[in-house]
Amino acid sequence: MEPLTQASARALLLDIEGTTTPIEFVYQVLFPYARAHVEEFIERHHASPDVSANLVQLRHEHDRDVAAKLNPPPWHEHSSAARLESAVAYVHWLMDRDRKATPLKSLQGKIWEAGYRSGALRSEVYPDVPPAFARWQAQQKSIAIFSSGSVLAQKLLFVHTTAGDLTRFIRAYFDTSSGAKTQAESYRRIAIMLALPPEEILFLSDVTPELDAARLAGMHIALCIRTGPPHPPTPAYPVIHTFNEIFP
User: Fold this and answer.
1) Topology classification of domain 2-21+123-245
2) Which residues of the chain does CATH 1.10.720.60 include?
3) Are 12 and 143 in contact (CB under 8 A)?
4) In a 3-state reduction of DSSP, which class is residue 14?
5) What class, spelled out in words, does domain 26-118 have in CATH?
6) What is the pTM of this model?
7) Distance CA 19, CA 36 (A)
8) What separation in angstroms does the CA of 4 have from each of 9, 151, 216?
């Protein structure tokens, strides 16, 4: 990890799932919670402007899936009840495919917000994350998040961790409204919003196509492997297993 510790990075851009937070928490807690509560949430909040906007966006997404012959569940508009039932069925269909659709992620974030506020949800981060955040802040390095989950969902996760509120360490949050995580242009756009050249940003993720895109944009990269047998560094990706290896 010597090249990374000596890199001129002034900011760290972090993935969440498998990087700051166990994948199990996302797939075994957050996603099941959203699925179990989406019908009740839509029925209760469908008239609010932001949820109504999500439903309109979901209908447009559905139309594109129909045009692409992906056979989503039918969407009926002949009554309010039918529309809401169609939206719920389509949300479940998207979740079954782990789609990163922006309106789906926005809706999930709102459902999780209700869960966090009620105390039903508490988020998890790896034990090395809070001290690393404090260390990087003391080193005057900016910390930003880039996740397919909505910005709202990201903020909620870091506010409600079992280690306490970590948002005081985080400068910025980016989701798919900044672009796909596998496209270099998304990382160039993020660099502009951080007011830093890409070569002064270190991106950490457990997904190699994301790392490829960030590297193409000019960022430093490291592959974060949290579990499983040890993986030695490869010519393609420096490998880390803990944030203790980054700017110790």
Assistant:
1) Rossmann fold (3.40.50)
2) 26-118
3) yes
4) strand
5) mainly alpha
6) 0.84
7) 26
8) 8, 28, 17
Over the chain (248 residues), what is each successive 10-residue block's mean pLDDT? 60 97 94 96 94 95 96 93 95 94 92 94 96 96 95 95 96 94 97 96 95 96 82 73 93
Q: Whole-angstrom Cα distance, residue 179 to residue 146?
A: 10
Instruction: For the chain, give every residue range classified as CATH 3.40.50.1000.
Output: 2-21+123-245
| In the block, residue with structure tokens 């839509």 | 42
Given a contact cutoff of 8 angstroms between Cβ atoms, the answer to whether 75 and 86 are in contact is yes
Q: Which residues share a beta bridge with 21?
A: 17
Strand 172-174 to 220-224 pairing: unpaired
DSSP states along 154-209: HHHHHHSBTTB--GGG--EEE-GGG--TT-HHHHHHHHHHHTS-GGGEEEEES-HH
